[in-house]
Amino acid sequence: MDSTPASWTAADAFLSDLLVGHDPDLEAALVRQRDAGLPEIEVAPVGGKLLDLLVRISGARRVLEIGTLGGYSTIWLARAVGDGGRVVTIEAEAANAAVARASIDEAGVGDRVEIRIGRGADVLPTLVGGFDLVFIDADKESNTIYLDWAARLGHPGTVVVLDNIGRDGEIVREDSTDPKVIGTVAGLRMLGEDPRFDATALQTVGVKGWDGVAIAVVTDAAG
Fold first, then answer.
1. What is the pLDDT of residues 100-146, one digit of tens each?
2. How far apart are CA 65 and CA 67, in angstroms?
3. What is the pTM of this model?
4. What CATH number should be reported for the domain holding residue 20?
5. What pLDDT is stored for residue 221 in this prediction?
6. Where are the beta strands (DSSP E) in 23-85?
7. Which domain holds residue 192?
8. CA dist., res. 128 & res. 141, Å (int)
9. Which of 45, 113, 135, 203 is the most exposed place for a label (fewest CB within 10 A)?
């Protein structure tokens, strides 16, 4: 089979059906998001399952999400932290937060989720630290700001997930003028050079196109 966006999508659908399956609450959250006219930029089902596994593998009980959108990934995270766990999620747009709140509550995990409305750079300084996992999926131009706060609000051993690092391969172009590419590269350089992080990144192809994710652990240097 040729490597094309169509074949990537077909393979992603196969993996999703095989390893994730169908979930009425998650699918309802996507329907509500689409009906509200929100952009279709949420994580793919296999990406949601990755977040679920990372939370469970790390034993995270307090999770910070930067970029709520319609709450799809928030539901994955809230389920994974389990009873007594907590997710704080930041969303810049009040209308998006309202859509997310309805879906999160309908999924039965509303008591585990606190939605903070406002720009990440404004909300992050108001939070109390001690987060065990931080998922960053917001405006790429602010990636270095979000990573800095992930280290400051985490602790040695905190898992940090930075989404959408592939940018269709544009990350290798030194002459790119795309703010999203520039912000993504700055975030990746920070993960590689800042002693507070130990990180890797993987390119992916699938329903999200040519994409990718970086995963880091906050080191003792952050203490």
1. 999 999 999 999 999 999 999 999 999 999 999 999 999 999 999 99
2. 6
3. 0.96
4. 3.40.50.150
5. 78
6. 62-66
7. 5-222
8. 24
9. 203
